[in-house]
Design brief:
Order of helices and strands: HHHHHHH
Helix content: 55-70%
CATH class: Mainly Alpha
Shape: globular
Radius of gyration: 15 Å
Number of helices: 7
Distance between the termini: 28 Å
């Protein structure tokens, strides 16, 4: 798998145009995580999770809701098809620091989303040892040093792991 993803610019543009300018890929990965937990894109719970966790409990503007719903539908389709092209990660032409920051943001959002309850959107206790181990690994990735060297093979392995965890959770919780 290549970490180059042509959807990176498209997703970044859509999120930025809707008003999400601070850590947009945390928002994107949160969507991946909560959809993987069985929350439907565009539902009340889906929108409330973003409002509660990333928008200081404030209602989301309509443009943000529309963008997140559209992105969520795309994400759900990719999860349905177990697509390895789930995360919109910048290619090697993008500055190394920016790529590592996107990785940190993606892993933060995903780990947060994977702790959401599909019943009411609250954060829930994770009791499965396997799920806890996955979350711990993904949480550690969010602490990546953006000044560190970037090994493309290691990066590919990390992204593949995060994709596999998202797909595994989706297959478990979306039924």
């Amino acid at each position: 798998m290549s970490t180059q993803n042509s959807n990176y610019e498209k997703v970044l543009k859509e999120l930025t145009q809707s008003g999400i300018t601070e850590t947009p890929f945390s928002w994107f990965a949160l969507a991946i995580g909560i959809i993987a937990k069985g929350v439907e894109p565009g539902s009340r719970i889906y929108n409330n999770v973003f409002s509660n966790l990333l928008n200081d409990n404030q209602p989301l503007p309509g443009a943000v809701v529309a963008t997140l719903t559209n992105l969520g539908l795309d994400i759900k389709d990719k999860l349905d098809n177990a697509s390895q092209d789930l995360f919109c990660f910048p290619g090697s032409s993008v500055d190394k620091k920016q790529r590592l920051q996107v990785l940190a943001d993606l892993s933060y959002g995903l780990s947060l989303g994977l702790t959401v309850s599909k019943e009411d959107g609250s954060l829930e206790k994770v009791s499965s040892q396997e799920a806890l181990a996955d979350l711990n690994t993904i949480s550690e990735v969010s602490k990546v040093d953006i000044e560190a060297e970037l090994d493309e093979d290691d990066l590919n392995s990390v992204i593949e792991f995060m994709v596999d965890v998202a797909i595994k959770n989706y297959q478990l919780f979306s039924k």
